Amino acid sequence: MIGKIAGRLDYKAMDHVLIDVRGVGYIVHVSDRTLASLPGPGEAVALYTELLVREDLLQLFGFPTLLEKEWHRLLMTVQGVGAKAAMAILGTLGAEGVSRAIGLGDARSIQAAPGIGPKIAQRVVLELKAKAPSVMAMGVHLGTVAETDEVIEAAPTPAPRAAKPVAKPPSRAAFTADALSALTNLGYQPGDAAQAVAQAAQDAPEADTATLIRLALKLLAPRN
Question: Where is this region: Domain I (predicted)?
């Protein structure tokens, strides 16, 4: 599985780019939004990738962040939404826009993507509404843009590093903070979001970030 590609951008086409990685060229399909954000030919570029395998075809799809990659994978679980349709939705709305549309039940925003009709848009909202909070929770930590070194040539083998201390598991405060961040990114007012998250945390003391988001969205829904 090819999860990330970093190299020099050879050229941009209508729906894909060619990235040279130490003499090997990779064709990577990207959304309009991603294409517009990439540098010019000859510049260093990095994309997270998803490899689509079919009987007679191998295709790489590229994303600037892991969050967008996760949304692409989730969108493709909806019946009638293939890889290109998922890219069209992400190209129109971006990762945060998809989060907002599904979280708020806004099928019209999904329908704004090229080739997405009302039935598919409604299906996306209905089928992913329960799954979306998990990706929203991941989004707090997966929004970093893929990075590439300025020099693409092979680097010398680094010296062994000392073992890092084992990280402590996230605290309840971290779960509530991440849930609050996700809700404000959806467009909710900080005060309303904080009140909903606080109530959700009180109702479910053992809830993780995704569960807090799901419960808070239910509390906020009547206000929309």
Answer: 1-64
Q: What are phi and psi of 2, to 5 degrees?
A: -95, 110
Indicate the residue among 63, 89, 111 that finishes a domain. Answer: 63
Q: Which of 45, 41, 21 is nearest to 153 (CA)?
A: 21
Angle at 6 between CA 44 and CA 167, to 5 degrees: 120
Backbone angles phi, psi at 44, to 5 degrees: -70, 140
23: left (phi over 0), alpha (psi -120 to 50) or beta: left
Distance CA 213, CA 215 (A): 6
CATH number at residue 104: 1.10.150.20
Give the integer Cα–Cα distance in Å for 152 and 164: 27
